[in-house]
């Protein structure tokens, strides 16, 4: 039941207008007559307040959020009761919800989407540090203020990790459009569940739509449990491989693959923001503000010129004089060379991407003319899914020689890679992965005793992870040796290659 505008709650808060309503409560814009400021008040529906369980959930929201003080969390100011019905007083945020922004603008600019994901993740991290899981992360619960800042609100079904009872295991709470698989199944909910939901929000910001639709909420929830997320790069090709990898890992159904904490997620998102800003040569909206908040070592990787349509706006200047070269500075492990190029599939827990620059890819054709589109090799490391390196076109659908390939040079430091991640525009080809410890490059002839077979590629998929059996041995060169063309095809095209290693 709503109450009349003009009502004075607790002899202090005068209701001015109803601005929202949900199943448990109604939200009003109100005026604080004591401090003379506008506030937002969430007042529980009287009929709901008569149920002790719902009443406790409402009160717990006030207790939980009152513990949090963070620039990206809507602040609780006060709480009280009026006519035996509880209410919570929040700071008033002028603006719109993130959902409204997506509906109004469609998919967001890539750098802006990443910036909002960073702000939301930082807010969730502050809650997780206090043992509080939001449990209902969705764009409807993110407010964008007039300055463009994102603020997370509505911890209405949040609970502390130490608390049990009202949201015990076996009960599914939350909006199923964004619900994690474990929450949909009624299993234990932790901070990783919030990370999954944020990954879905990031997907929606990039694509302009949620990944799953169904006849009802249960059908949608089961898709989160059983179905793989649509490929974000297929839906929006301008999304780089590093950002696609973050989406994949954040929404991984396997908790051992999903980001273990918001700190890990934020670190990768910050790297992606610098990569995407550098690729585009600009940053839009809130991305300009978030770039200023990055750690110094990450800010130094960008050469920022401030402009503003005749005054000041932040624009990203190329670091090494070309967009592809700009990306080579951007991995979190500053001891490695490289670009921030990430695998097209998510790294498992305990793995990191090996840093590589576009100049680290080389063609290899020892059994032919010693050249195989050498001008295209940088394309497998440029983060652009729309470009690829390809073999020559061979007539008859078969290779007229033992093989042809492309190899990665990780440098003199060498690494023991555990996986090779690849994307190909011509699925169905086969080959092997070879590795060599040192030397000036692959031998003039092949095979060579210095090269060890460490992986197999059979009937290559469009995106694939190839386990590498390096057994702790550190290698400098990793060669993708193509031995069979796809059926009915005359060449092989590879758009992305990356290596993963143990931390």
From TrEMBL:
The keyword Transmembrane helix applies. Residues 13-273 form the Protein kinase domain. GO terms for molecular function: ATP binding; protein serine/threonine kinase activity. Keywords: ATP-binding, Coiled coil, Kinase, Membrane, Nucleotide-binding, Serine/threonine-protein kinase, Transferase, Transmembrane, Transmembrane helix. The keyword Lipid metabolism does not apply. It comes from the Bacteria. Gene3D superfamilies: Galactose-binding domain-like, Phosphorylase Kinase, domain 1, Transferase(Phosphotransferase) domain 1. Residues 360-382 have a biased composition (Basic and acidic residues). It catalyses: L-threonyl-[protein] + ATP = O-phospho-L-threonyl-[protein] + ADP + H(+); L-seryl-[protein] + ATP = O-phospho-L-seryl-[protein] + ADP + H(+). Pfam families: Pkinase. Its EC number is 2.7.11.1. Residues 336-395 are annotated as: Disordered. ATP binds at residue 42. Residues 41-68 form a coiled coil. GO terms for biological process: negative regulation of fatty acid biosynthetic process. The chain crosses the membrane at residues 310-331. This is non-specific serine/threonine protein kinase.
């Amino acid at each position: 039941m709503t109450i009349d505008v003009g009502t004075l709650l607790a002899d202090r808060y005068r209701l001015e207008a109803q601005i929202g309503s949900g199943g448990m409560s109604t939200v009003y814009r109100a005026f604080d007559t004591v401090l003379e400021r506008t506030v937002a008040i969430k007042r529980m529906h009287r009929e709901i307040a008569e149920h002790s369980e719902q009443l406790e959930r409402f009160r717990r929201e006030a207790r939980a959020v009152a513990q949090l003080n963070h620039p990206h969390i809507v602040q609780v100011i006060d709480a009280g009761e009026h006519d035996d019905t509880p209410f919570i007083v929040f700071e008033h945020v002028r603006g719109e919800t993130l959902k409204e922004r997506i509906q109004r603008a469609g998919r967001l600019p890539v750098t802006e989407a990443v910036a909002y994901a960073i702000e939301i993740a930082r807010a969730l991290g502050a809650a997780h540090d206090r043992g509080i899981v939001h449990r209902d992360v969705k764009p409807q619960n993110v407010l964008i203020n007039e300055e463009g800042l994102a603020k997370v609100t509505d911890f209405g079904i949040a609970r502390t990790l130490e608390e049990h009872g009202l949201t015990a295991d076996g009960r599914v709470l939350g909006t199923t459009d964004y619900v994690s698989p474990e929450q949909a199944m009624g299993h234990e909910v932790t901070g990783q569940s919030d990370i999954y939901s944020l990954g879905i929000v990031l997907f929606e910001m990039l694509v302009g739509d949620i990944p799953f639709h169904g006849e009802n909420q249960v059908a949608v929830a089961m898709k989160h449990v059983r179905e793989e997320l649509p490929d974000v790069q297929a839906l929006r090709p301008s999304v780089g491989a590093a950002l696609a990898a973050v989406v994949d890992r954040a929404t991984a159904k396997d908790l051992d693959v999903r980001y273990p904490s918001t700190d890990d997620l934020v670190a990768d998102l910050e790297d992606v923001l610098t990569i995407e800003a550098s690729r585009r040569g600009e940053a839009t909206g809130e991305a300009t503000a978030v770039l200023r908040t990055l750690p110094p070592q990450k800010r130094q990787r960008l050469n920022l010129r401030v402009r503003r349509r005749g005054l000041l706006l932040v624009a990203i200047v190329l670091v090494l004089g070309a967009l592809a070269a700009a990306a080579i500075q951007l991995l979190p492990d500053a001891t490695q060379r490289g670009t921030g190029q990430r695998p097209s599939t998510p790294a498992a827990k305990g793995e990191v991407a090996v840093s590589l620059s576009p100049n680290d890819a080389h063609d290899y054709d020892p059994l032919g003319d010693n050249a195989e589109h050498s001008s295209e090799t940088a394309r497998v490391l440029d983060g652009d899914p729309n470009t690829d390196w390809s073999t020559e076109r061979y007539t008859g659908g078969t290779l007229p020689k033992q093989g042809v390939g492309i190899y990665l040079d990780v440098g003199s430091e060498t690494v023991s890679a555990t996986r090779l991640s690849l994307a190909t525009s011509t699925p169905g080809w086969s080959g092997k992965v070879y590795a060599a410890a040192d030397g000036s490059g692959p031998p003039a002839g092949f095979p060579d005793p210095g090269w060890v077979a460490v992986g197999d590629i059979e009937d290559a998929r469009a995106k694939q992870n190839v386990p590498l059996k390096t057994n702790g041995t550190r290698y400098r060169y990793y060669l993708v040796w193509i031995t069979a063309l796809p059926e009915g095809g005359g060449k092989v095209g590879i758009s992305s290659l990356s290596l993963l290693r143990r931390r």
